[in-house]
Amino acid sequence: LCGFSLFGYSAITFWVVSTVGRCDEVGRWVLSVTGSEDCANTFRNQDIDGQSLLLLVDNAHHNLVTLLGLKLGPVVKIMSALKELSAKSINAS
């Protein structure tokens, strides 16, 4: 999971920026993945949009846990969901 580019970075870039582009959309997506309103609010409060989410993905476990103060459980769920989305977008292309 640390080397996110291995999961089709460019394929998921389009999806994240175009589909989960705004901060409120990222918050809703995080809530749907983690089930945690606190986690979703952290993303909203930090103004994390689709582009920001992609920038956080490099070294994501460290960034999401250390910089945002998230617990490891939701971080693992977020990374797993991004990996799954990437696999779907690669298979669709």
Question: In a nutshell, what does this entry contain?
Answer:
By secondary structure, this protein is mainly alpha-helical. The chain has helices at 9-19, 23-34, 37-45, 50-57, 60-67, 72-92. The chain has 6 helices and no strands.
Would you mind describing this structure in some detail?
By secondary structure, the protein is mainly α. It has a single domain, classed as Transcription Factor, Ets-1 (DNA polymerase, domain 1, Orthogonal Bundle), CATH 1.10.150. The protein has six helices and no strands. Helix 1 packs antiparallel against helix 4 (50-57), helix 2 packs antiparallel against helix 3 (37-45) and helix 5 (60-67) runs antiparallel to helix 6 (72-92). The two termini are 22 Å apart. The model is unreliable at 1-9 (pLDDT under 50). It comes from Gongylonema pulchrum. Pfam families: SAM_1 (PF00536). Residues 1-23 form the signal peptide. Residues 22-85 form the SAM domain. Keywords: Signal.
- Give helix % range: over 70%
At CATH level 3, the topology is: DNA polymerase, domain 1
The overall pLDDT average reads 75
Structural class: mainly alpha
Helix and strand element order: HHHHHH
Query: What is the H level of CATH, i.e. the homologous superfamily?
Result: Transcription Factor, Ets-1
| CATH architecture descriptor | Orthogonal Bundle
Work out the oligomeric state of the chains in this entry.
Answer: single chain
- Overall geometry comes to globular
Uncertain spans? 1-9
CATH classification, class level: Mainly Alpha
- Distance between the amino and carboxyl termini: 22 Å
* Overall radius of gyration: 12 Å
Strand content: under 5%
Structure summary, number of beta strands:
0
Number of domains: 1
Largest sheet: none
Protein name: SAM domain-containing protein
Pfam families: SAM_1
InterPro entries: SAM, SAM/pointed_sf
Keywords: Signal
